[in-house]
Amino acid sequence: MLSQSHIINTMKGKNLLQASCVILGLSVAPFARANLLTNGNFESMPNFGSGVSGDSGYSALTGSQIPGWTIASGRAATVHNTVLYPTISGAYSINMDGEGFGGNNADLSQSFTSILGTAYTLEFDWQGWVNNTPFLDVSVMDSVSATTLAHGNYGFSATLHHESFTFIGTGNALELRVKESPQSGFNDNTFIVDNFSVQAVPEPSSLLLLGLGGVALLRRRR
After folding, report:
1. Of 214 and 170, more confident
2. 126 and 195 Cβ atoms separated by less than 8 Å
3. Whole-angstrom distance, CA of residue 150 vs CA of residue 214
């Protein structure tokens, strides 16, 4: 990554505001990329192959076998790799049918902390594989008040969808929950999901302060 000193040396004689915008972009980028979720893209799969069922292309995992996630009791979440079955990106994606294990489909969740009044974005990808009856349900809920802060419910579509929601932190622990609702209760192969992230949104005032800091730094170095 370019250092601030390198930017300053190579931008002599150019507009200070333009230079500060470059520094601002470099300063904010790491913050904007910070995902509050663990293993939101499902790429950490140490237990693949040790599920309640599976073959070379999938493993139906239970409990806490997917790092960062909790699978509801009596249910499984089907993990696809790239060998036989569809994925969205990377080496692994989740098939929400959970193989119909126990007569139910996947229901997985993850808790994360929030700051009161801070804006967050939830983003994820989903795609339909086989046209069946269930709906994909994704929500963020306050674990203390049980208030729903973000919610989406989707019927089958073969198109790849990227979803994005903005919600406000309550200061309590929040829970992201991904499930089929209504569910089919069988091995329906309807929804593939991937790339879940929750990120804090920088406040405009913070961006302005960073920009002004960059201008001041350039003025001192000139």
Report:
1. 170
2. no
3. 36
Q: What pLDDT, on a 0 to 100 scale, did the predictor assign at position 24? A: 45
Percent of the chain with pLDDT over 70: 77
Q: How far apart are CA 143 and CA 43, in angstroms?
A: 26
Give the type of residue at 122.
L
User: Global pTM?
Assistant: 0.80
User: What is the model's pLDDT at position 205?
Assistant: 55
By mean pLDDT, which of 26-30, 55-59, 176-180, 188-192 is the weakest? 26-30
Radius of gyration of the chain (CA): 21
**Domain-by-domain residue ranges, the chain?**
4-33+204-221, 53-200
Quote the pLDDT of residue 33: 56
Which CATH code of 2.60.120.260, 1.20.1300.10, 3.40.50.1360, 3.20.20.70 fits the domain covering 53-200?
2.60.120.260
